[in-house]
């Protein structure tokens, strides 16, 4: 137990190191070469609520200008609910935690010219001074590094359909297996193999909880037909889960799945037929690797005449609302 306690306090010290602006040099970099915005640094040093946000959803997940509008609205929702938003991206090779409006605009304009950056891509983006939009795995990595335990996204990656043959399993899942951050998402899209994704998360030791339901949601729809091992009914329930996870030093992540609000749920059959068509096209065009998810997202949106994008925007905003409340409840618990 002592070893766990000392490991925990070493982690806390490391996180404090990234939280203070004392060690930020003239170049705006700190010891870990991560630039933390003054607002986020101040919130972290005070122990105030902060919500990490990813940026691949801006570059690859939505078209311009909806990507920029949504990113701004999501930040505003986080603020209006008492937390500080920290959108994470790599700009000119510098990992940034907390973006200015100008930086958000720059990323939204770059769109897919920004490199989709998962964990494996981080070192290359920094070394080549590139512009990287972080996926859930890379965003979790930086959030944990600077001591942000709550991260809001739309949907996470998973085991792709036929993943048992292609081995296309998102690094979001292995990241959840080794990084103690709570990810608030609307579950997993049915472009993926949901039952196998849940199996894989179990293998990785990830705590999977659903918000106000026993069913794991399927992003556009409220349920996937799969049951979750753990149910949470309030931001306080989530905060207690996060607190227990951190105090025990489990080192693994938590997936908190929030179903899309009923009034925004897309027609399951409309989405399903679009997904089937998009999957077939991806196979015909031999779209594989990290291009597959953006391809499927864009095609499903086209095939549904924008219905899927509207649902996507609505659920991301709802996740931001719930995530901010969780971050506030968790910050209160620590004071
Ligand atoms: N699912 C969505 N929207 C997204 C993504 C997934 O509904 O924007 C992005 C996230 O950044 C996620 C990444 O981390 O795609 C997963 O990509 P891959 O399947 O290549 O691991
Ligand atoms: Mn993949």
TrEMBL record:
Entry keyword annotation includes Lyase: yes
Cofactor: Mn(2+)
Top EC class for this record: lyase
Record's GO cellular component terms: cytoplasm
Listed SUPFAM superfamilies: Indigoidine synthase A-like
Gene3D superfamilies noted in UniProt: Indigoidine synthase domain
Keyword Amino-acid biosynthesis set for record: no
E.C. no: 4.2.1.70
Record key words, sorted: Glycosidase, Hydrolase, Lyase, Manganese, Metal-binding
Pfam family, one: Indigoidine_A
UniProt GO MF annotations: hydrolase activity, acting on glycosyl bonds; metal ion binding; pseudouridylate synthase activity
Assembly notes: Homotrimer.
Protein name: Pseudouridine-5'-phosphate glycosidase
Lineage, broadest ranks: Eukaryota, Viridiplantae, Streptophyta, Embryophyta, Tracheophyta
């Amino acid at each position: 137990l002592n070893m766990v306690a000392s490991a925990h306090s070493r982690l806390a010290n490391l996180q404090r190191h990234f939280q203070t602006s004392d060690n930020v040099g003239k170049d705006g970099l700190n010891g870990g070469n991560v630039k933390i915005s003054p607002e986020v640094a101040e919130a972290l040093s005070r122990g105030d609520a902060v919500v990490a946000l990813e940026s691949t959803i801006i570059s690859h997940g939505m078209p311009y200008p909806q990507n920029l509008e949504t990113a701004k609205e999501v930040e505003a929702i986080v603020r209006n609910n008492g937390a500080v938003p920290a959108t994470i991206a790599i700009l000119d090779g510098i990992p940034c935690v907390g973006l200015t409006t100008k930086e958000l605009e720059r990323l939204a304009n770059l769109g897919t010219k920004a490199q989709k950056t998962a964990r494996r891509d981080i070192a290359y983006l920094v070394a080549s001074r590139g512009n990287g939009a972080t996926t859930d795995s890379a965003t979790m990595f930086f959030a944990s590094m600077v001591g942000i335990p709550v991260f809001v996204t739309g949907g996470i990656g998973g085991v792709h359909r036929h993943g048992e043959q292609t081995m296309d399993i998102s690094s979001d899942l292995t990241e959840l297996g080794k990084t103690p951050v709570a990810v608030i998402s609307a579950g997993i899209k049915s472009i993926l193999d949901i039952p196998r994704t849940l199996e894989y998360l179990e293998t990785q030791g990830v705590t999977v909880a659903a918000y106000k339901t026993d069913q794991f949601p399927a992003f556009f729809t409220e349920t996937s037909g799969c049951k979750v091992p753990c149910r949470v009914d309030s931001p306080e329930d989530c905060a207690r889960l996060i607190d227990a996870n951190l105090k025990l030093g489990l080192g693994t992540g938590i997936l908190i799945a929030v179903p899309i609000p009923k009034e925004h749920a897309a027609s399951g059959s409309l989405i399903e037929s679009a997904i089937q068509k998009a999957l077939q096209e991806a196979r015909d065009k031999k779209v594989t690797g990290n291009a597959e998810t953006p391809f499927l997202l864009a095609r499903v949106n086209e095939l549904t005449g924008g219905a899927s994008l509207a649902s996507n925007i609505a659920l991301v905003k709802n996740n931001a609302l719930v995530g901010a409340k969780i971050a506030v409840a968790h910050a209160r618990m620590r004071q």
